[in-house]
Amino acid sequence: MDLPGWLVHWGHPANMAVVLFAMGGYGTYLGFRIRFSGDVEEKAKAKDLHPKLLATMFVFFAVGATVGPHAITGAIGLALLTIQAVLPSLFEGNPGLRNVHGLLGSSIMALFLVHAAFGLQLGLSS
């Protein structure tokens, strides 16, 4: 396709950063709004958008996060996101899993920040 070298080199990290910070960041914010907001309407909107937004993030990460030398942290993150996606189906039988869901989700975001740092390090080294 004869794309410029800088675009080939930095296109993947730029796209993944947008997914992580925009979709993941806002999705995390919505999760906290579900958990802590006293506004019923705000909670309802967040409950609707939160799983859709983070499912879309998962798809983008599944396509892009498992390629390259930092694929190990990407694969671990995707495995944890899969567990995270299953947890809400178990809330009814065990309400304590809501806390696990919140802590795991926050930990996953931290892992993906480390993943991004490794990716940036790789990009700057070549």
From TrEMBL:
GO cellular component: membrane
Keyword terms: Membrane, Transmembrane, Transmembrane helix
Protein's name according to its UniProt entry: Uncharacterized protein
Transmembrane segments: 12-32, 53-83, 103-124
Organism (species): Spirodela intermedia
Pfam family, one: DUF4079
Origin: domain of life: Eukaryota
Signal peptide span: none
